[in-house]
Automatic annotation (TrEMBL):
Major location (coarse): membrane
Keywords: Cell inner membrane, Cell membrane, FAD, Flavoprotein, Lipoprotein, Magnesium, Membrane, Metal-binding, Transferase
Subcellular location: Cell inner membrane
Cofactor requirement: Mg(2+)
Domain of life the protein comes from: Bacteria
Name of the featured protein: FAD:protein FMN transferase
Length: 349
């Protein structure tokens, strides 16, 4: 039961700000339908939907998806005491550790995005996430002491984690603690998409906690339509609708998971470069890329950077991104040129 409770909490700090609309509409042809199922994983929900003539693949896909997600949890959760990642975090500095191909794939991508973003994305930020009350150690109501922030900041640094891909080995230079909560969920989405494609399914939408990946069109030839949530702390409204036929979508934001002390709001998004929660006006950012793991990590990095640095970085790198920032009244939305083709009519402000 304890492990189940820890599993339920995993990734609870993630912002799940994208919902799915209109994916269960009736088909004009009785030979074509949307087959779907849903469940729980990584502390949130997941769903898989695909277009098919019948539901003959439902049972095997559901069984294989459950096994796949359980394996990813056992590899990458920090809430499961005996997961591969938990054991790796307990390993002594300077010792080579064998890692699974799946964990290696995620860590290599994380390192690549950390280099690209100059450390705005950093999977070793875990000790600071925990210190600020957004990790496995539980919530806090008071700002940590400066001395403790400084002490744990010295442990943060993706460049101190070394991977030998040829031999599937990893070594921590110091006492690094790795937290994959900003990339593992996206990786799980990608694995579910690959599972469907291994069954010959080429028209689908798969989603874990709002991070998703789609391919093809719905019955009737319509694209999948998705709603991006307006960043209100106390209400759920739609800010923008997008249409997409292929790609992965991930959103990061700071408007639901936070604590307040003396009128100051402390976001769950920790800037690895400063060791403090972000304090800018960017409320959420949505990224579209080819893979959900990349979209997940880039959305986090852009959220850390803020409305100006993040937007300029996305422009320079050709990233398809939508930024929603706090204004004196309501919110201001802007997007990079690559995001424009996905936009539908704006719904909320």
């Amino acid at each position: 039961m304890a492990n189940q409770m820890r599993l339920t909490k995993w990734l609870a700090a993630s912002l799940l700000a994208v919902f799915v609309f209109g994916v269960l509409g009736c088909s004009p042809s009785p030979r074509e339908q949307v087959v779907s199922f849903q469940g729980l994983t990584m502390g949130t929900s997941f769903s898989m939907k695909w277009v098919a003539a019948d539901d003959s693949q439902l049972v095997p896909v559901r069984r294989e998806a459950g096994a796949l997600l359980a394996r990813i949890n056992q590899q990458m959760s920090t809430y499961i005491d005996d997961s591969e990642l938990s054991r790796l975090n307990l390993a002594e500095a300077g010792q080579l550790q064998t890692i699974s191909p799946e964990l290696q794939e995620v860590l290599l991508l994380a390192a690549e995005i950390s280099d690209l973003t100059s450390g705005a994305f950093d999977v070793t930020v875990g000790p600071l996430v925990n210190l600020w009350g957004f990790g496995p150690d539980g919530r806090i109501t008071h700002q940590p002491d400066q001395a403790e922030v400084d002490r744990l900041r010295s442990k943060v640094g993706y460049q101190y984690v070394h991977i030998d891909p040829a031999n599937s080995m990893l070594m921590k230079e110091h006492d690094q603690y790795i937290d994959l909560s900003a990339i593992a969920k996206g990786y799980g989405v990608d694995q579910l998409a690959e599972l469907l494609e291994s069954h010959g399914i080429q028209r689908y939408l798969v989603e874990i906690g709002g991070e998703l990946r789609v391919k093809g069109v719905k019955p009737g030839g319509e694209p999948w339509r998705l709603a991006i949530e307006a960043p209100h702390a106390g209400a759920r409204e739609v800010q923008q609708v997008i249409s997409i036929e292929q790609g992965a979508v991930a959103t990061s934001g700071d408007y639901r998971n936070y604590f307040e002390e003396d009128g100051v709001r402390y976001s769950h998004t920790i800037d690895p470069r400063t060791a403090y929660p972000i304090r800018h006006r960017l409320a959420s950012v949505t990224v579209i890329t080819d893979t959900c793991a990349e979209a997940d990590a880039l959305a986090t990095a852009l959220m850390v950077m803020g409305e100006e640095q993040g937007y300029n970085f996305a422009l320079e790198q050709g990233i398809k991104a939508l930024f929603i920032s706090k204004a004196d009244e309501g919110f201001v939305t802007r997007f990079t040129p690559g995001f424009a083709p996905y936009l539908q009519a704006s719904i909320g402000r």
